[in-house]
Amino acid sequence: MNQIKRSVLAAAAIVALCGFQRTVAQQPAKTWSQDEGVRIMTEVQKKLTRLDHYGVFDWLTFGIQGKTVVLKGYASRPLLKDEASQSVKGIAGVESVDNQIEVLPLSPSDDRIRASAYNRIYTNSALSRYNANQGSLARALGPGGRRSELMAGGITNDPPLGYHAIHVIVKNGHLILFGLVSNETDAAIAGMMANGTPGAFSVDNDIIAEHSKLAMK
User: Fold this and answer.
1) According to the model, what pLDDT value does residue 5 have?
2) Can you say whether residue 142 is alpha, beta or left, with left for phi > 0 and alpha for psi between -120 and 50 degrees?
3) Which of 57, 114, 122, 141 has the fewest beta carbons under 10 Å from its own?
């Protein structure tokens, strides 16, 4: 599990590393040295993955432009977007932060899709190991969770906490899966589970398999 978790955390930095290398080549006088850039990217990665409000229904990535950190991805709650900016601004060497994180619309319909997709994915026997709770959404929320309201919506403000390798993003009925799993079979299973989610208009499976060519770039 620890190896998988480390790989998931590294996935968010793949785009950043490629972007940093291009920036060094194009703007050598306006960016960090390579060693400094790697240090800063590592710190940004740690800061983002440790945010208090970053959960399974969010997905954050980042890139580098000169000495600016560009934040991208999806936040199910506005406070996560603000929290991400504040955490990165304090890193030594970062001159500015361009926060392009998209805040997802507040929607009871989208919440129902989140709840259903979560249950379909994380109660699957092959995929439960990618979840610290290893069970349904009701189990993830625990005794204090609003069990009677799960399938009726309301989970955006009370999401399951803890480690989740597969992130479930829902925007206006459209579902996107992000994350990193051990193999392509698990990625395919997650996609199949998501495709059966009631109410979802479309499903995009952007999960990366740990040993795929994309993950190794």
Assistant:
1) 47
2) left
3) 141
